[in-house]
């Protein structure tokens, strides 16, 4: 199975900050990398698919980059509603494994 | 409007069984691959199982292989997860998620999720 490793595991930031979360795959996954946002009590929400394609309806302050084994999710200017846990997921091969998550907290 | 709604969760004793259901509406269910994903209390998302549109390609996480069975009824727009030999570590919110292939390369991602159903395994 492909292992996904995110860093950092948690991150404190302020409204307006630019933040970047990284995700590394244990083998090359081309651009088969998705990013999800998860808030307590809510269903996960896809933000980015195919490493860099913004899902319809997702604010443009979210962006994704990378290919092969190294990927990043960047939020250009944090908004209050962005404080949540973020997960990467590979869809290169089954099982479609998730990273362990990055909890983004208010500083 | 696309909707997926899970049901069937509850409290069950270790070694017991439970069947989860996911009712889909607002899209052509038979055309989409589906998945189950879970989140244990205080833990991250864990992919559990997937089934393609025709039910001829099925995968399971190692943690549930041999105990859980995924199935679907395209005539009734429903997805199921039969869970047997349940363990305390299966306690989680279970989500049903639709798979969409996006972009020119058909990058699979989970575009619609239900609100989840809680399974608690405890004596």
Summarize the structure.
The complex is a heterodimer of chains A (107) and B (123). With 107 residues, chain A is mostly beta strands.
Please indicate the percent range of residues of chain B in DSSP E strands (runs of 2 or more): over 45%
User: Sheet with the most strands of chain A?
Assistant: 6 strands, mixed
Find the count of extended strands of chain A (DSSP E, 2+ residues): 10
List low-pLDDT spans of chain A: none
Helix content of chain A: under 10%
What is the string of SSEs of chain A from the N terminus onward? EEEEEEEEEE
Q: Count the beta strands of chain B.
A: 11
Largest interface: A-B, 28 and 26 residues
Distance between termini of chain A?
36 Å
Major sheet details of chain B:
7 strands, mixed
Strand content of chain A: over 45%
Structural class of chain B, please? mainly beta
Helix-strand pattern of chain B: EEEEEEEEEEE
What's the shape of chain A?
globular
Identify the overall geometry of chain B. globular
Structural class of chain A: mainly beta
What is the mean predicted local confidence, pLDDT of chain A? 96
Count of separate DSSP helical elements of chain B: 0
The DSSP helix count of chain A reads 0
Keywords:
heterodimer; A: 107 residues; mainly beta; 48% strand; B: mainly beta; 54% strand; globular
Write up this protein.
The complex is a heterodimer of chains A (107) and B (123). Chain A has 107 residues and is mainly beta. Chain A is 0% helix and 48% strand. In chain A, the strands form two sheets. Chain A has a six-stranded mixed sheet, with no helix packed on it. In chain A, strands 1-3-8-7 form a four-stranded antiparallel sheet, with no helix packed on it. The termini of chain A are far apart. The mean pLDDT of chain A is 96. With 123 residues, chain B is mainly β. Chain B has no helices and eleven strands. Chain B has strands at residues 3-7, 10-12, 18-25, 34-39, 45-51, 58-60, 68-73, 78-83, 92-102, 107-113, 117-121. In chain B, the strands form two sheets. In chain B, strands 2, 4, 5, 6, 9, 10 and 11 form a seven-stranded mixed sheet that branches. Chain B has a four-stranded antiparallel sheet with strand order 1-3-8-7, with no helix packed on it. The radius of gyration of chain B is 14 Å and the shape is globular. The N and C termini of chain B lie far apart (40 Å). The mean pLDDT of chain B is 95. The chains are: A mainly beta (107), B mainly beta (123). The A-B interface holds A 1, 31-32, 34, 36, 38, 42-46, 49-51, 53, 55, 85, 87, 89, 91, 94-101 and B 35, 37, 39, 44-47, 50, 59-62, 95, 97, 102-103, 105, 107-111, 113-116.
